[in-house]
Specification:
- This protein is an alpha+beta fold and 249 residues long.
- It has one domain: Transposase IS200-like (Alpha-Beta Plaits, 2-Layer Sandwich).
- The chain has 5 helices and 6 strands.
- The strands form 2 sheets. The chain has a 4-stranded antiparallel sheet, with helices on both faces. A two-stranded antiparallel ribbon has the order 1-2.
- β4 and β5 form a beta hairpin.
Length: 249
């Protein structure tokens, strides 16, 4: 006589330990922990991107890297910018270096091009920054430079394009970096690509806003191809060099 097969029942993944506490399953505090002061960008599929839509990207760095607004770090990021010209996967139209983060305005063909281009830029920048810091530390630095994923805002209208340009190029005034140190004598942030921007309101009265120092090397950036960054933003007025930008939109 054939033996009947034992029926298998799916067991619950939830159980309680000897103290009666529930273990396993979805619960508060479960999952990947946040890193540092700022939570990472959510790990979900990024939205679709059109070639006509520029992107405002924010890159935050690890506290161990220290202050970014230094000549060695500027030189390292400038060198990383040059690599984007060689690859031409993305086009960095503007950049602004703040104390613990970097803003870039980027043009890309699509979402995948943006991701690939930003990955290449971050890898190159991290290597060069670690190399620059090695001179200060007296040893090779291997630690993380950028904290988790970059944050990206797609620019979809002339108004947002104008706000984004003002936010990035005048971000040093928002963080009061213009009130202390040698940059206090500069009209435009020397840790940005502001000297390559032709939309300053002050240029209507004077073709020269400030004199470039002999040792200063401008950031290599692309001229914009998208209509929003080339012409569209001008519908809402030129940008003043002393304009203090509001919060991100």
């Amino acid at each position: 006589m054939a033996r009947s097969r034992k029926r298998h029942v799916q067991q619950s993944l939830l159980h309680r330990d000897k103290n009666g506490q529930r273990r396993g399953g979805k619960r508060a505090g479960a999952g990947r922990p946040k890193r540092g002061k700022y939570a990472s960008a959510r790990h979900k599929r990024r939205p679709a991107l059109k070639a006509s839509q520029p992107v405002h990207v924010t890159l935050r760095v690890s506290p161990a890297v220290g202050r970014l607004r230094r000549r060695k770090i500027y030189a390292a990021l400038r060198e990383a910018m040059i690599t984007t010209f060689v690859r031409e996967i993305i086009r960095v139209v503007h950049i602004s270096i703040q104390s613990n983060h970097v803003h870039v305005i980027v043009e890309a063909r699509d979402r995948l091009s943006l991701a690939k281009g930003m990955q290449g830029f971050q890898i190159s920048a991290a290597k060069l920054i670690n190399s620059a810091l090695a001179d200060e530390l007296g040893r090779r630095r291997r630690g993380r430079v950028f904290t988790d994923r970059y944050h990206a805002d797609i620019i979809t209208s002339p108004r947002r394009a104008r706000h984004c340009l003002a936010y990035v190029l005048n971000n040093w005034r928002r963080h009061h970096e213009d009130r202390s140190g040698s940059p206090a004598t500069w009209t435009i942030d020397p840790f940005s690509s502001g000297d390559n921007f032709a939309g300053w309101k002050e240029l209507e009265d004077s073709p020269v806003m400030w004199r470039t120092r002999e040792a200063y090397k401008s950031m290599p950036v692309w001229q914009p191809r998208s209509w929003l960054l080339r012409e569209g933003w001008r519908r809402y007025g030129l940008i003043g060099a002393f304009e203090v930008p509001g919060p991100k939109r």
